[in-house]
Amino acid sequence: MSDFKCAVNEQNKAIELPLLRLGGSVQQNPHMRAFWASTISFFLAFVAWFALAPLALDVAVSLKICENQQFPPAQFKTQLAYLKFKSLKTGIAYCQYGKNDAKKPTECKPVPADILAKPTCNSTVTAGCVSEKLKLQYRPDVLNTCVCSPGTDCKQVLSNAGTISVIGTIVVRIAMGTLLERFGCVNCQTGLLLWGSFFIGLAATITTTWGFILIRFLVGVVGATFVTNQVWCSLMFASNVVGTANACAGGWGNLGGGVTQILMVLVLFQPFKAAGMEPDEAWRVAMAVPAILLFLCAVGIKLLCWDTPTSRRFDVAVTGKTQKPSMWDYVEVLKDPKVVLMAMQYSACFGTELAMNNVLATHFRTYFQMKAGDAAALASSFGLMNLFARSLGGILSDKLYLRFGFRGRIWAQFLALFFEAIFLFGFGCVDNSQPWYVALTILIFFSLFVQMAEGTTYGIVPFMNPKQLPIISALVGAGGNLGAMIAGFAFYGAIPDPIMPFKVHGCYVMFFALLSPIYYWPEYGGMFRGPAASTLTKVVPCQETQKAAKEDEGAAEVDL
């Protein structure tokens, strides 16, 4: 035990999280190698997973699916998307003199007779005249380069592609429980990264809508790296710090969802255009960067990391499980309604994050009519909160556990989800008549509680059924993707309104937050009850562990 760089318990799991203690061989420092390998690999997987999201409108232009490409305004003057359009920058509407119906327009109102009666201004007529544009019934010049508002085929394609990108991960995340037991963390993570590297590189060849959707589906498989991320940390860190370790590894990995908004647009796409590339070429070349990064990370993990503190390959015996891995394990685990609820609560937080990664940049570009770089910067603020917010959730879960026992972890989970729902609903109340910074302010608080809820979730998961840890981690992780699929199809894809889906989504989150009192374990207790009397003798070791952890609380801190 003294040979390890980290302080460990009798199971050789680290009881501290020294972030910058990076030296030593893999035999001496397997804990921090696993922590940073799981974090960096998940971070890069997120970058690749959502690399196409902030460039979606530019891809739409390349695929010629924008409303004004399919239906040129000169020939199709009364398309609904045009009739509803108003430039936020100039305040000029496509129907500059109004529509014949505010909610369901079919035509623009004609130019007023007094305007038509006035002469057109020119070099010789300067008084009592009007400009030529004021005599136009329609103003196609105010339309965006790509009209892709709710109700258009373009919007439907982008929404479906975003939703499909998380569906592919659901099946793989579920399967990851058994795959991790059979092949170990290093092999599974390496395989997923190589898969993602190949298909995000192949994204440069997209020429059709079905090809775009298929690529997003195949790249989405890399989202399953999250299961490895959480299982790997749970195998390496002890109970007094596992919540913090899982939250930091997961949160800093999720940070890739915010970084990719900036990386793909401001660092790659726009500089490539400035260097002389056409937009169609620039976004395709940009796809090579995440492809290369994923490949290099996969090679590094395979060569430098172990699955557990003492062995290169994972063995299920480490968790106390005696039987061989089986698909029947999933059935046994799902018999526990608490596992199902945890998966659905994760759908309400991580699923929400995935949905936001897909829709925010396009929402800011279309609804608030922002430039690509500005929209990417605002959308990135949501993901960048992962820098500390998910870790904060894990730390809160650990702290309340030390102070109040296991019920502290459940209360942390409930409060994070509750306030997430409040601010998500609030974000849906911000329309484009209000300044962008109002939306940004609410978005930041919304993001804070989303990420915290993800951290509190995986502060509970390692305790639910330790012998089935990989299976439960996989199922809960898959629940996150299920939530994104539900949000994509039922809310953001089905409701033809730019802000109502956010309100409905907020109600979805609140529903599952209010089910938290269902959590109860005889050995741990629940939100309002302590452990069962018959299990008190079994809980003594846990209480001793908590007491020891309080006496040596410094070991549970994140050591910089």
How many beta-strand segments? 4
In whole angstroms, the N-to-C terminal distance is: 22 Å
Q: What do the pLDDT scores average to?
A: 89
Strand content: under 5%
CATH class: Mainly Alpha
What name does CATH use for the topology? Growth Hormone, Chain: A
By CATH's scheme, which homologous superfamily applies? MFS general substrate transporter like domains
How would you write the strand order of the largest sheet? 1-4
Radius of gyration (CA) equals 26 Å
Largest sheet: 2 strands, parallel
Count of the separate structural domains = 1
Explain the overall architecture:
The chain is mainly α. The chain has a single domain (30-63, 145-526), classed as MFS general substrate transporter like domains (Growth Hormone, Chain: A), CATH 1.20.1250. 61% of the residues lie in helices and 1% in strands. It contains 21 helices and 4 strands. The chain has helices spanning 30-49, 56-63, 67-70, 80-83, 113-117, 153-202, 209-219, 225-236, 242-254, 256-274, 279-286, 288-304, 328-334, 337-366, 372-384, 389-404, 406-427, 436-464, 469-492, 500-513, 536-551, and strands spanning 17-18, 520-521, 525-526, 558-559. It has a two-stranded parallel sheet. A hairpin with a 3-residue loop joins strand 2 (520-521) and strand 3. Helix 6 packs across helix 7 (209-219), helix 6 crosses helix 14 and helix 8 (225-236) packs antiparallel against helix 9. The relative contact order is 0.14. Belongs to the major facilitator superfamily. Nitrate/nitrite porter (TC 2.A.1.8) family. It is a multi-pass membrane protein. The chain crosses the membrane at residues 34-57, 192-213, 219-239, 251-270, 282-305, 410-428, 434-450, 471-495, 501-521. InterPro entries: MFS, MFS_trans_sf, NO3_transporter. It is found in: Membrane.
